[in-house]
Description:
- The chain is mostly helical.
- It has one domain.
- 78% of the residues lie in helices and 0% in strands.
- It is built from eight helices and no strands.
- It has helices at residues 2-29, 41-60, 64-87, 92-109, 114-135, 141-154, 159-179, 192-208.
- Helix 1 (2-29) runs parallel beside helix 3, helix 5 runs antiparallel to helix 6 and helix 6 (141-154) runs antiparallel to helix 7 (159-179).
- The longest helix is centred in the N-terminal third of the chain and has 28 residues, at 2-29.
- It is globular.
- The two termini are 20 Å apart.
- The mean pLDDT is 89.
Amino acid sequence: xxxxxxxxxxxxxxxxxxxxxxxxxxxxxxxxxxxxxxxxxxxxxxxxxxxxxxxxxxxxxxxxxxxxxxxxxxxxxxxxxxxxxxxxxxxxxxxxxxxxxxxxxxxxxxxxxxxxxxxxxxxxxxxxxxxxxxxxxxxxxxxxxxxxxxxxxxxxxxxxxxxxxxxxxxxxxxxxxxxxxxxxxxxxxxxxxxxxxxxxxxxxxxxxx
Length: 209
């Protein structure tokens, strides 16, 4: 029980950092935009969500390494999700940090192994590069880079179901927006959150294994 409570407290702090980080990058993409502060509904949802995730991680993680990895990855993906939803951009800096974390996992934690991480990067990035070319601009370069980074973080073969979940969720969301006439075929679409969702599903599966 103490581990769950500690996880919740750590998660709340991480949630505040996630929100601050998202506000920072949103302001960089849209300098004139005034984002909500920590005392706001979106910030509260972010903090509560991270607290719940960290409490779950504290409850289910098999060890410290798995717990730290789950918290770091989700914090980065949550920041990317918030930024992408607001400005339809995925910051290169956050993708690079995610790739840096993949190196830590591979060469310090040993999970996934370096070969699996490298293969995951190539498969994730290559698959989404082909989709971007075939879609003729329907998918941005940021999505391709994020898919590659997720491949490095999750490794091979876990990257495949993660991307599949993301593609299905993103396709369903896009179709729903079209049916509700909230978007057109030419509208910009934030794909990052759905890639993050696919990765989250795989992290939950790993924690419950």
